Amino acid sequence: SGSVTLDAGQFAYVPDCYLTKLTNGRCFLIICGDRMSDDYDTNVYEISRGTIRECATLFNTQVVSGNITPTEWEMGVRLDLLGTYMGIVMYNLSSSGEFTRTEDYYSINSNYALEIINPLPVIIENEPTTLPVGERIYIIGTNNTDTIYFQIEGTSQYGTIQFTREPGEWSFGIMIDGIPESEYFKSLPYAG
């Protein structure tokens, strides 16, 4: 009996809340909040014997409705490479309330074609090559570490782009073959 108050932070709005009970009997409250303009965070709290304890926060991550079980959660993660995209990836919720990513591949469903303005070094069918000026590609996935997966517009041809990130906590953008990404594309759909 009684009530417990929870300060989950300040959000522009809270689109989703979930309550899940694991087979071990532990109960968790999962709150997805939008800080501003699609900057989502997901917070996990354990509810036990009239108390609420914060367990974890996933920044720039939100629950994606559709593929959820008490321990398996499909999440959308904000990714900033060749633009801003929502990458879909699976997470496990542990018995202690921690989310752990279960795969390295983030699936991206983008309808924004990137137009190439300088020959772009890529790998197609395990062979290094370049895509010519004027070619257009769609980003379809990434490992968010060093590889972007793409499809060439109007074809069933797929390939990868190898990239690096600029060192530093506040660096933005990626490098392809040592050159800033913006040197290869007419425009990049970054948010904000």
What's the topology here?
Elements: E1 13-21, E2 27-34, E3 40-48, E4 51-59, E5 61-68, E6 72-80, E7 84-93, E8 99-101, E9 106-108, E10 114-115, E11 120-124, E12 127-131, E13 136-142, E14 147-152, E15 158-162, E16 164-165, E17 174-176, E18 179-180
Antiparallel strand pairs: 1-2, 2-3, 3-4, 5-6, 6-7, 7-8, 7-9, 9-13, 10-13, 11-12, 13-14, 14-15, 16-17, 17-18
Structural features:
single chain; 192 residues; mainly beta; 9-stranded antiparallel beta sheet; 4-stranded antiparallel beta sheet
How is the biggest beta sheet arranged? 9 strands, antiparallel
The total count of helices amounts to 0
Q: How far apart are the first and last residues' alpha carbons, in Å?
A: 45 Å
Q: Fraction of residues in helices?
A: under 10%
Which series of helices and strands comes N to C? EEEEEEEEEEEEEEEEEE
- Class based on secondary structure composition and strand pairing: mainly beta
Task: Say how many strands there are.
Answer: 18
Fraction in beta strands: over 45%
What form results from the Cα inertia axes?
elongated
Our Rg estimate from Cα atoms comes to 20 Å
Mean pLDDT level: 90
Q: Uncertain spans, ≥5 residues at pLDDT below 50?
A: none
Structural summary, described in words:
The radius of gyration is 20 Å and the shape is elongated. The model has no long low-confidence stretch (mean pLDDT 90). Helices cover 0% and strands 55% of the residues. With 192 residues, it is mainly beta. The protein has strands at residues 13-21, 27-34, 40-48, 51-59, 61-68, 72-80, 84-93, 99-101, 106-108, 114-115, 120-124, 127-131, 136-142, 147-152, 158-162, 164-165, 174-176, 179-180.
